[in-house]
């Protein structure tokens, strides 16, 4: 990967792009604080956090001593949680409207059936909110009908029907209040957010991505030894498009790296109007002036594990160099008792990439983000995972 002598990093800037997440950046700061301390204790290095005093910054500083080198890293979370929150404000009837529209877009375009040929996990995750919301609707209808039937003899036809409707509505409201445990509404809003535009980026998100691009571009002029962009979940494909725009503008960028974690790129790139994302995938995959490593794990049922996002999308150029596809191998890198505890906690596992491993191998989030090696040097000469999926599956491959 690197044709020159390894560069020792003393100062690094990290930009973290979260996925479809309504939570504030302090969630990621506290997660980094607790999990980095655990990993440092396991792996035998030192790491500590301090706040960033800059006005308007959503980040923190990391000071770490690893392999005899002292490294300072400045983190910044590139926020779009306000856009997520705005998209999650749909009423209960509107959410069922989203369900119908999203299901139609994925099935009528043929995207759902193509996605099924990749990994089962994310398809189950996509169908889960549909199934749960339909079951909730059926339960509400049955409950409302039952209440109406029981009260019809006492109150008459119309009052009983109104009480039945009220009972059904209250049950749906109760189901929604309990969504913090079952995530059906959350996942429905997530899939509907992208499907509404058939794979294109909404204008509001495009504007935010342009701001992110400018922020990263400024950092490239500030003398950092490495500027590392980390995209998690749906933040992965945002990172691909943001860096593609940046590189088209600048022409060349030294010291720029991209780490994508738990990516769900095919959920977007397989949609008819995702020409922008497909074009960016093809462009970024051939760049010689960056390093791009994609880490997933078969144990993560919410990600397209070990799927080359460029190749499966059907847009691989002849000179494709990236991404390097690696597995976090949860079954091998987590202690058996930890794996047993987390195995069926799908949403927690989807964030494991940002957490500590009892038996870390190639992948250590805190060595990558706070250690003395650039991403490219750390994985120089590393062979990609043998279990990766590379065959083109996408029906929609237009770039224009």
What features would you describe in this structure?
The protein is α/β, with parallel strands linked by helices and 400 residues long. The chain is 50% helix and 14% strand. The chain has an 8-stranded mixed sheet. α10 links the parallel β5 and β6. α9 crosses α10 and α10 packs across α12. The longest helix has 36 residues. 46% of the residues are buried. The model has no long low-confidence stretch (mean pLDDT 93).
List keywords for this structure.
alpha/beta, 18 helices, 50% helix, membrane, transmembrane helix, transmembrane, AB_hydrolase_fold
Task: Give the number of DSSP strands.
Answer: 8
Query: What spatial form do the alpha-carbon principal axes imply?
Result: globular
Number of helices: 18
Kindly report how far apart the N and C termini lie. Answer: 30 Å
Mean pLDDT: 93
The largest sheet, given as strand count, sense and whether it forms a barrel, is:
8 strands, mixed
Structural class assignment: alpha/beta
Order of helices and strands: EHEEEHHHHHHHHEHEHHEHEHHHHH
Largest sheet strand order: 2-3-4-1-5-6-7-8
Multimer state: single chain
Q: Strand portion, in percent?
A: 5-15%
The proportion of residues forming helix, as a percent range, comes to 40-55%
Please state the CA-atom Rg, rounded to the nearest Å: 23 Å
What low-confidence regions span 5 or more consecutive residues with pLDDT below 50?
A: none
Keywords: Membrane, Transmembrane, Transmembrane helix
Transmembrane segments: 123-148, 154-175
InterPro entries: AB_hydrolase_fold (IPR029058)
């Amino acid at each position: 990967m690197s044709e020159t002598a390894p560069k020792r990093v003393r100062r690094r800037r990290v930009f973290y792009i979260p996925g479809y997440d309504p939570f504030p950046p302090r969630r990621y700061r506290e997660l980094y604080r607790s999990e980095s301390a655990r990993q440092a204790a396991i792996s035998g290095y030192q790491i500590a956090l301090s706040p960033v005093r800059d006005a308007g910054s959503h980040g923190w500083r990391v000071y770490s001593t690893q392999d005899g080198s002292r490294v300072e890293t400045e983190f910044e979370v590139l926020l779009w949680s306000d856009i997520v929150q705005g998209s999650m404000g749909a009423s209960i009837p509107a959410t069922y409207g989203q369900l119908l529209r999203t299901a139609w877009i994925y099935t009528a375009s043929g995207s759902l059936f193509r996605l099924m040929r990749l990994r089962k996990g994310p398809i189950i995750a996509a169908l889960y909110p549909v199934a749960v919301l339909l079951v909730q609707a059926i339960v509400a209808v049955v409950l409302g009908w039952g209440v109406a039937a029981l009260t019809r003899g006492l109150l008459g036809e119309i009052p009983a029907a109104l009480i039945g409707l009220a009972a059904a509505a209250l049950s749906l409201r109760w189901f929604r209040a309990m969504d913090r445990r079952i995530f059906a509404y959350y996942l429905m809003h997530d899939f509907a957010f992208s499907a509404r535009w058939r794979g294109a980026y909404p204008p509001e998100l495009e504007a935010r991505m342009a701001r992110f691009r400018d922020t990263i571009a400024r950092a490239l002029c500030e003398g950092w030894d490495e500027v590392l962009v980390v995209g998690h979940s749906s933040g992965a494909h945002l990172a691909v498009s943001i860096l593609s725009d940046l590189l088209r503008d600048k022409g060349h960028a030294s010291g720029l790296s991209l780490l994508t974690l738990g990516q769900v790129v095919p959920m977007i790139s397989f949609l008819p109007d995702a020409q922008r994302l497909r074009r960016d995938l093809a462009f970024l995959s051939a760049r010689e002036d960056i390093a791009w490593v994609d880490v997933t794990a078969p144990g993560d049922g919410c990600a397209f594990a070990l799927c080359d996002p460029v190749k499966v999308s059907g847009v691989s150029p002849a000179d494709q160099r990236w991404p390097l596809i690696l597995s976090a191998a949860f079954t091998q890198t987590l202690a058996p008792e930890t794996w047993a505890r987390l195995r069926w906690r799908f949403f927690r596992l989807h964030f494991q990439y940002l957490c500590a491993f009892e038996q870390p191998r190639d992948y250590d989030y805190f060595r990558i983000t706070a250690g003395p090696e650039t991403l490219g040097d750390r994985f120089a000469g590393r062979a990609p995972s043998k279990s990766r999926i590379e065959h083109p599956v996408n029906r929609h491959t237009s770039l224009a």
